[in-house]
Amino acid sequence: MSNLRNFREDFPILNEEVNGRKIIYLDSAATSQRPDQVLEAVLKYDHEANGNPHRGSHTLSMRATEAFEQVREKVRKFIGAKSTKEIIFTKNATEAINLVAYSYALNKLVPGDRIVITIAEHHANLVTWQQIAKKTKAELVFMYVDPDGRLPLGELHKIDEKTKIVACTHMSNVLGSIFPVKEVIERGHEMGAKVLIDGAQAVAHMPVDVTALDADFYVFSGHKMYSLMGVGVL
User: Fold this and answer.
1) Complete domains list, the chain, with CATH
2) Do the Cβ atoms of 77 and 71 come closer than 8 Å?
3) pLDDT 10s digits, 93-120
4) pTM, two decimal places
5) Which of the two ends of the chain, N or C, has the fewest CB atoms closer than 10 A to its terminal CB?
6) Bridge partner residues of 42 (DSSP)
């Protein structure tokens, strides 16, 4: 109990009261609260290094650039990427998915191609592909979960030679189910498809190694793992 109490002390917002009681926050799957360590790091940056990264030669701009690239390296190590060149910063996972959909898939898909996703996707990884399918006249195919909310490996047969894009959540934002993304990726590659994994829930709760997974695209948001709004990674 003492460890839990100490953990709560890192989050100043948990001292707020609702109906006369301190907050017990259980909505981190939507947006996590930020601990003092994050708030202090942001304040330190604003006090010492706020400038336009990669756009100036003055001291503050160079400090901002250094801080910016240090974060890129930290993200690379955190998810096991081979190079910082693989790390693209976005506003959130939704923008990252749309970046893949509209800069890659929209130009690659033709009528008769298939996009395969699971029925358990977050709207960001569902509506985007519905729109792309409509624009390209590709077929949108769903893999279904079992009564326990898990994806049976038997559903992977829907990823066939007509499939060009596979999009799958790593961990359900509703149930917390962990999906067999390694097998999904392997099947997608066997069929010649590109595979996007929505890791918005997974990266905050389990080790992720994108090199070992061999996903073509992996996306997540910072605001579900103690960071600020408006920060995402592709």
Assistant:
1) 2-76 (no CATH), 88-233 (3.40.640.10)
2) no
3) 999 999 999 999 999 999 999 999 999 9
4) 0.94
5) N
6) none
